[in-house]
Design brief:
about 150 residues, alpha/beta, Ribose 5-phosphate Isomerase B, Chain: A, five-stranded parallel β-sheet
Length: about 150
């Protein structure tokens, strides 16, 4: 899988850990984040990753900042992106099955590398559920995003 990853200064160290982990799982990782811990603006990284996913250049995206909130807000402004910030493996699994999320965000101030890796693994392995009710709900969101109320 081709995965875009982005971060701000507070997400730099966790990014390094997750890049190493994804490479060990044989994923192709494209680093679109900041390269150090100097203060940086999270929207710049969030937009790059979200646009890469929305365009189909990358299959999924990962974002990391201090809280995850800014990254999620910015990424969800890009049409075709469904970004979220999980705190558990079950939440990550359900986000893929029910909502077909394509961008995940971690708050490095609130989650350790071990839990982030476990959540990420489940999220990467889970497919969208093909049950009619989930397809219908995803279509409602997509239609709204396209201005079709």
């Amino acid at each position: 899988m081709k995965i875009a990853i982005g971060n701000d200064h507070r997400g730099y160290n966790l990014k390094l850990n997750l890049v190493e982990y994804m490479i060990s799982l044989n994923h192709d990782v494209i680093d679109m984040g900041f390269k150090d811990t100097k203060p940086s603006d999270h929207p710049a990284s969030a937009f790059k990753v979200a646009e890469a996913v929305a365009s189909g250049d990358c299959d999924r995206g990962i974002l990391i900042c201090g809280s995850s909130v800014g990254m999620v807000v910015a990424a969800n402004k890009v049409k075709g992106v469904a970004a979220f910030s999980p705190m558990s493996e079950l939440q990550a699994k359900m986000s893929r099955e029910h909502n077909n999320t394509n961008v995940i965000a971690f708050g490095s101030d609130f989650i350790g590398a071990g839990l982030a890796r476990a959540i990420l693994k489940i999220w990467l392995e889970t497919q969208a559920d093909s049950d009619e009710r989930f397809i219908r709900r995803r279509k409602m969101i997509s239609d709204y995003e396209k201005g079709m109320k």
